[in-house]
Write a structure and sequence with these properties.
By secondary structure, the protein is mostly helical. The chain has one domain. The protein contains 3 helices and no strands. The longest helix is centred in the middle third of the chain and has 29 residues. The protein is elongated and about 55 Å long.
């Protein structure tokens, strides 16, 4: 996923402002942009779902402190 992001932006984009085209594809590939955006969102949702499920399974008697700590760390 990160490799797809890197090949879809110009190599100097992290150093300076640029209007250059990506060197790998020659132009920004919209399909690759949408794919990487979908994968980032899907991965984030999946990880958050697993974390909340684990919190509710481990601390089933007192989940409020665990959720509060999770929200404090994510902000």
């Amino acid at each position: 996923m990160y490799a797809l992001t890197l090949v879809n932006i110009p190599f100097v984009a992290n150093i300076q402002r640029t209007d250059d085209a990506p060197e790998v594809f020659g132009a920004t590939n919209k399909v690759v942009v949408l794919l990487t955006a979908f994968l980032c969102g899907f991965g984030d949702a999946g990880i958050n779902n697993i974390i909340y499920t684990t919190i509710s399974a481990i601390w089933y008697e007192d989940t409020a402190p665990a959720y509060a700590l999770m929200k404090e760390l994510s902000c």
